[in-house]
Amino acid sequence: MLIHKHSTNNDFICEKPQTKLAQYTYLYVAPTDRCGFGLFTARTVSVNDIVLRVEDPHYLSRATPRAHLTQLGFGHADIFQVGHDLFLPPYGGLDDFTNHSCDPNCGLRVNHAGFDMLALRDIAAGEELTYDYSTHQQHPLEDMACQCGSPNCRGVVRSFSTLPEPLRQRYLGLGVVAGFITESATRSRPSR
Ligand SMILES: [Zn+2]
User: Is the pTM of the predicted complex or chain greater than 0.70?
Assistant: First the structure.
């Protein structure tokens, strides 16, 4: 999936995702000012709207260790983390083009059979749709420079655990943090 991530290697995309994208005709891919192509909306979106839902019972079946995808030539901007050492290559869907922002207007809720991309605020027609990659990133080798241009840009996109506590709590409250991150945080809590 996701994985913006500015994917140029389509050779790995050998299956058509079992998605129902026809209902998302208001989404389009276009060049951005700072970061290659991005995903945009042609109509206004209200906060909490699902802007994109991917339903695919085999969604996670292509998850593989990071080293394997590196061998295949994928960079950290191409792959999407779904487990402690499990990553998905580009998915072949619109969401492959979703860029990161340190001030995102969307968040991702991933499940075993796809994901929802929901609006974190009202979004105007013509705006680029973004999410904070750190909400789905927990790996020492996945840091990447950020050029999102937002006033609160962190400069480097790092693991979720490195975010300031208030920001972590905000994302957790919104329910847009990867399950493998929230589950390990729960497990590591000291028991009494
Ligand atoms: Zn940034």
Answer: yes
